[in-house]
Each structure stands twice: as C-alpha cells, then as structure tokens.
Amino acid sequence: MAPSDTISFARGAPSLDIVDVEGLREAAALAFAEDPAGLTGYGTAIGYPPLRAWIAEQHGVDPSQVIVTNGSMQADAFLFETLVGEGDSVVVEKPTYDRTLLSLRKYRRADIHMIDLEPDGLDVTALGAALRDGLKPTLAHVIPNFQNPAGYTLSREKRSALLALAREHDFTIFEDDPYVALRFAGEALPTMLSLDEHGTVVYASSFSKTVCPGVRVGYLVGPAELIARITALATHTYISPSMVAQGIVHQFCASGRIRSSIETVKAALAERAGVLCAALEREIPDARFVAPEGGYFLWVELPEGTDVAALFTAAAERGVQIVKGTDFLLEGGENTLRLAYSGVTPEEIDEGVRRLAEAYEALAPAAA
C-alpha cells in the first residue's frame, strides 16, 4: 500500500509556495479598476490588446506579428492546423514533449521524424544528413531552452546551423520556448526568432511557467501574414480568448511583478535541481543525467535492460510519481524517465529519491 503522502515528480508546474499570489491579487484588482469594459467584454481573437503590445515590445516586433491564446498548447494547435496537413513531414526532437507527439499524430496525422537530442540540443548534423537524403519537412518543432522532457538547451552554434538548414530546405522552425526565462545557471542565449532575418521562425511561449499555470495564457510570434491566418482560425474557434486572464497577466507584467516572480521561481528551481542531482548521485549511482541550467526537468537514463514501466509501478506503490521516458518517444527509451523538480520541496525531493531508489533496488533481482 502506497504511503498517504504522495511525492510527485510528474507534473511540470511550480508549487504554490513560489507563486506570487499576492502579486496576482493586486494585478487583478488593477486590471478591473483600469479597464472593466476590456476585461468583461468578448474582445477579439488577437488577445487582450495591451498584453499583445507588451509581448511585441519584448520581442522587438510589430503587434501584428503576435497573437495571445488560451495557453501555449492552443497556440501550438493553431499553428499545426494552419501549417501541417495530413501526411506532411514534421521534424521533432527525440525525445520530445508528449502532447506535441499526440497533437501531430492523432489530430494532424503528420509523418513524424524524430531526430536525436544531444546535451547541446538537436543533432543538426543528423538532420542535415536526413535532409540531403530527401526528407522535406514542413515544420521542425524545437524546444530550445531546458527542453521538456530532457532539460537540455540548444547551443548558440546549433541555433545558427538550424536556421541555415531551414532557409536552405524551406521549412519553418517552430521555436517552442516556455522555459526561456527560467535560467538559473550558465549564459543566456539569443532566441532563433531574434536571429531570424527571413521569416523562418514562429515563436511560442507561455506565462504558465513564470506567472502560474492557472492563468492559461500563451502566445505566438511570427510573420504578420501567418498570424493573420491563425487569428482567423482563432476567431472561428472561440471568438476570443479570456480577456480576464490576459488582463491580469498584463498588469502583472506591466507593473514589474513578473520580474520578481521569475527571480523567486529561479531561486527555488536552482535549489531543487541541486538537491535532486545530489540525491540521485547518492541514492541511485546507476543513474545517468545532465545537470540542468534551468527549467523544470531532468532526464534520467538507467542501465540498459531496466524496465522503467515496472519501476513506475514499484515507485507508485511507495508513493512516488514519475513519468516513463517512453511517453516522449515513438519507440525505445524503456530504460529512461523524466523527473520534474518544480513542484516539490527539497525535503520532498530527498525523500522521493530515497523511495525511488528503494523501488529500483526491489527490481534488481528481476533484472539479474
């Protein structure tokens, strides 16, 4: 029987203690005081105009190049529906976010090509070889910073190389970047959007990781013509996204509270990532991983032959939730798992890894 105090390494979300609830309360009051008509009306599919303008300013683009949506997953879905037809080739990282795989496979019926992910990001050499061999993708989906599930970051050199490949082979780079602000070590890198001079990149991000998941506010930045097409799709889908949520986020951002919120989250993530790495080294010496420089996730490889599906069950019996690596792959990865450290305290991490090690050790006789 599992302990009553379940410790979850499964959810990529901040714990309540690092969410600026007071700042959100103040932002909500200001939003309703300053623009009650704007918040309570339907609005338009572009999103809340002041927030759209703020986002455009952050990225140095015209507001016509921005659409604000109900979370970044909806932004992803709109982009896929606009650009990806049934049977179109799409490049994704191996491993990649499980919801991306679901959307592309189930709803778009795309022809997915997984390219290996290395500690410094997508293997652009392998992608280049596949392109020369005849691969003609419509889109390449990349999570460049602190990738979900691996936690890896695309290097500066690989960003430039990927842009060059996209121009040469005429495909769109979808730069899916919800974790960009959450760097707690190392040097910040320029977005591919900022390096792009040819309209090759469509950029997405989210306030779920820097404000809180409950606001459900994400956005796309891209060529104005493409954003106009997506706006028409959004209009037919829901008339407009939530003006209330977006108005609150705008006040949170414009007031500067988002900066202090990000610093609070980064400090917590840095501590939690350090505790997790130390606990794994101490409790499960067989585990192989790359210490993250930001974001929410750590990718763990266990020795070949380890059955992580069995480990998943054994861990659950001990009150620990993990995510199997196979969830992020089309095939393989039976010896891998993802651990999210964003929603657990340092004390919970130590106890959770101790229980996970106990589950792993319990499987050892079966693997022998």
From TrEMBL:
Transferase keyword on record: yes
Ranges where the Aminotransferase class I/classII large domain occurs: 7-356
One of the protein's GO biological processes: alpha-amino acid metabolic process
Keywords: Aminotransferase, Pyridoxal phosphate, Transferase
InterPro entries for the chain: Aminotransferase_I/II_large, Class-I_PLP-dep_aminotransf, PyrdxlP-dep_Trfase, PyrdxlP-dep_Trfase_major, PyrdxlP-dep_Trfase_small
SUPFAM superfamilies: PLP-dependent transferases
Top EC class, one word: transferase
EC number assigned by the record: 2.6.1.39
Pfam families hit by this protein: Aminotran_1_2
Cofactor(s) this protein cannot do without: pyridoxal 5'-phosphate
UniProt-recorded Gene Ontology molecular function terms: 2-aminoadipate transaminase activity; pyridoxal phosphate binding
Protein name in the entry: 2-aminoadipate transaminase
